[in-house]
Each structure stands twice: as C-alpha cells, then as structure tokens.
Design goal:
Layout: E1 3-5, H1 9-12, H2 24-35, E2 43-44, H3 51-55, H4 61-69, H5 74-80, H6 86-109, E3 111-114, H7 135-147, E4 152-156, H8 163-168, E5 175-182, E6 195-199, H9 205-223, E7 227-231, H10 249-265, E8 270-273, H11 282-300
Parallel strand pairs: 1-2, 1-3, 3-8, 4-5, 4-7, 5-6, 7-8
Helix pairs in contact: 2-11, 6-7, 9-10, 10-11
Keywords: Hydrolase
InterPro entries: HDAC_classIV, HDACs, His_deacetylse_dom, His_deacetylse_dom_sf, Ureohydrolase_dom_sf
Organism: Mangrovivirga cuniculi
Length: 301
Amino acid sequence: MLKVAWADSYCHSLPEGHRFPMEKYTLLPEQLLYEGTLENDNFFRPDVPEDDLIFSTVHSEEYIKKLNELTLSRSEERKTGFPLSEELVIREKQIIQGSVDATMYALKYGCAMNIAGGTHHAFTDRGEGFCLLNDIAVSAQYLIDQHHFEKILIVDLDVHQGNGTAEIFRGNKDVFTFSMHGKNNYPLHKEKSDLDIELADGTGDNIYLDILDNYLGQLIEKHEPQFIFFQSGVDVLKTDKLGRLGLSVNGCKERDRKVLESCKINDIPVMISMGGGYSEDIKLIIEAHANTYRLAQELFF
C-alpha cells in the first residue's frame, strides 16, 4: 500500500500572505481522494518528533534552541522567508517526522511519500528559502544511524539547487547528493553537491529528460544505492513564477516516471517529498504533483 504523510499543520499553520500556493497541501490530497488514486487508508498523520531526532543527527543544538525559543535574529528570520512562530516550528518538525516515517514505509513497500517536505534549503545551523529544517537530510541520517545504510542517493530535481542538503552531507561518504537545477536561479551562491547539473533558462522537455536519463542511469550503476530520496518539485514547469525552465506538465510527469521506473527496476526503495511549485494557476500545480502519486501507484502497487 502506498503510504503518504499528511497533517493539517502542513497548510493551516502557515501565516497569512503565505497560503498561496501552499494551499496545495490541502487541495492535493482532496484531488487524489476524489479521483480514486488514493483512499483514506493511504494517509497517515505524523507526530511531532522529539528534538534529539533533529539536532543530534543533522541540525545543531544551538539552532534548534533558537527555533524553540523563537529567538532567530531579524536577518535569520528574513532568510527563511517566513515570520517565525511556534506553529511554524511545529509544522516543520512534523514534516520531519512525516518523512522519517515515510522512509520506513518505503523500506516495507518500496515507495512512500510526504505531501510536504523537500526542505532542501535548510542548513546545519540556519534556514533559508522557506525551509527551516531539512527533512531529507534527517531521514537519510536516520537510515545511517538506525539501520546502518552506507549508500544513499539523493535525487533533487527541484528547480533550485539543494544547497542545504549539499552543505549537510559535504564529505559524507554514505550519502551522494545529486542536484539538477536552474543555473541562473536561486540560490545566488550555490553549494557544491557531489554532482550538480546546471540548466540554462528555458530548458525544455527533450533536453531535460535526455540529461536526466544519462546521469541517473550512471549514478545508479556506479554507486548501487540502497535507498533513494527523490525531491520532486514541480517548479520546473514553464508556467512557474520562480522557475525559469521550460518543462510541460507531461514533461514533468515523464521526469518522475524515469526516476520511479529506475527505482522499481533496480529494486531500490524510494521516499518522495514534494518540493516547490509556484505556477499562477493552482490547477497546474495540483495536476503536476498528482501525476507523481499516480505514477507511484501505477509502478509500485
């Protein structure tokens, strides 16, 4: 059964003025239920984790203390993109637990998902770009610490570089970070992933898919990962306000198909987090995200 993390806090804890397109966290599960792709039993509600799951493995204790006490400086708060609040911190922690739980479900079923997550701009000691805590990094480290994994591949296909994830795992031989992103897009200063593929503005379906097909196959063959984390942001769409690439909705779907088919064929468990998506038309965001779930059901279940 495809298991999917979802909680009310994913949307309702966000401050006014930041709801669009964050309302996708409510509309996406509604669409998946309406069309029959998922049923209520597919969803699970993650708890709020204890702090030691977060700071003892990935984030610094000092940074978690600042979040808990709401004592980020004005500059630190501005970099996150959100006004800091207790509700927002709880939301981010619950996303962390959702991704950790989904990782465990992926080990059991082959594939699992988090409606939110993909918070790849969160560093060891700071947040950036609408990310306070890095759910992918915490989940990957959990596999290393609790299940002794030694070969993890992070496939980050959001339009923005996974700079926080790259910083967290710099020099870590257990995790290979692969980020394929817009060359001229945020962040202005890129960190160094194990493999960065920078794409020119306007890159469309054919070129994008050919590049992904080439590099993903090589990475899997060379590194033989035991687990893959897939950041499936749909801000690669041509219609995205922040994206600058040129993919169609169908091209984005084929991107997801390539990743998920590679996982299935090679018997590699995969946990998928949603990442960004900022098209003006919310229907396009929902359709592109929903395709990821449809493919997961089609290929794994």
